[in-house]
Amino acid sequence: MRELLVLLLLVAEAYCRSRSGWCESGCACGGDLKFTVCSRALFSQLPGRVPPNTELLDLSDNMISVIPARSFSRNRKLRFLLLQNNNVSVVEDAAFSQMEFLQKLDLSRNRISSLAEGFSVGLALLRELQLAHNRLSGLDSRSFLHLDGLQRLNLSSNLIRGIQVRAFSSMSSLRQLHLQDNLLRSLRSGTFSMLRSLEVLNLAGNQIAAMEASVFKPLTSMTLLDLADNRMSAVHFKTFLGIRAYSTHILLEENPWNCDCDLQRVFRKLRSVQRLFLDDYYNLTCREPAALKDYRLTDVDAELCLAETVTVLVITGTVAVTVLAALLMGERKRKREKQRKHWTQQGELSDESDY
Fold it and tell me: Are 232 and 206 in contact, with CB atoms under 8 Å apart?
């Protein structure tokens, strides 16, 4: 019996050693080898030995610069892949192919400047993609071609200046889109045309000064629209009226508002729309005109149309006086003409009687 017990212990020890050999030096493997943590391991490239049963692979805080094609073909059970805080600048086509179980991919805080068409190959079931704090300058129709199941996309703190109309065309399931702290200057109609499930759209901290009237019309599920800290001085009523969601909260503070009568009218009408909520309306401040700079809109909105009203009254009064004067002059002229005709007729009658 004792010999059998010793034999079992020897087999168990050998088994454990063989399993620990599947884990790359510098990594820690646990949870029956379902968790492989290689964070802060000073890796300059992907580790060669990752247990095939791994479901969570943490490669954060290393110096990895390239993700080669089919890098994780032996780890098809991966559900969470963390690559944030590296030096990744190149993601080769099909780098994440055959990862049919992957749910979260974190590539934030790297040096990625573009996304090729093959970037999303194999990621049809991905739920969350983190690309914040990279160097992306634009998004085209090929960038996210295969991300049919994506629900959360974070593109904040990049250098994005433009978004092609069909850049998000495959993301019918997307619920959150974070584009804050980029370099967007305008929003074109069609940019968000396929995002009917989108609930949160964060565009704060850009340079947006203009938006086409129907840009938000397709967003029938949107509950939060953040446009704070942009360059909007005015807004059109139809731009927000086009939002057909049941209830949408809109953030607009820290924009350089031109506080005039038109702006006051737009906000008054927007606040009357029951499905729209201007949560920070009482924090909006004026940039123009100079006399109202840094004043809260709510403190001056009752006076914004006063000057215009006075001007209209003055113009109306002037027109009325002019018309009245013209009528009086016309009436006087008519009377003089009538009198002249009367005296002319009297003169003619007098001449006939003398004859």
Answer: no
Tell me, yes or no, whether 14 lies in a domain.
Answer: no
In a domain, 231, yes or no: no
Q: 137-143 contacts: CB < 8 A, separation 24 or more?
A: 137/113, 137/161, 138/114, 138/162, 138/163, 138/164, 139/115, 139/163, 139/164, 139/167, 139/168, 140/164, 140/167, 141/165, 141/166, 141/167, 141/169, 142/115, 142/116, 142/117, 143/115, 143/117, 143/119, 143/167
* Rounded to 5°, angle at Cα 340 from 334 and 341: 90
Q: For position 56, which CATH number holds?
A: 3.80.10.10
- Among residues 125, 150, 183, the one where a domain terminates is 183
168: domain range? 21-183
Residue 294, φ and ψ in degrees, nearest 5: 75, 0
Please give the DSSP secondary-structure letter assigned to residue 334.
H
Reported as a single tens digit per residue, the pLDDT across 232-278 is: 999 999 999 989 888 999 999 999 999 999 999 999 999 999 999 99
pTM value > 0.85 = no
Q: How many structural domains compose the chain?
A: 2
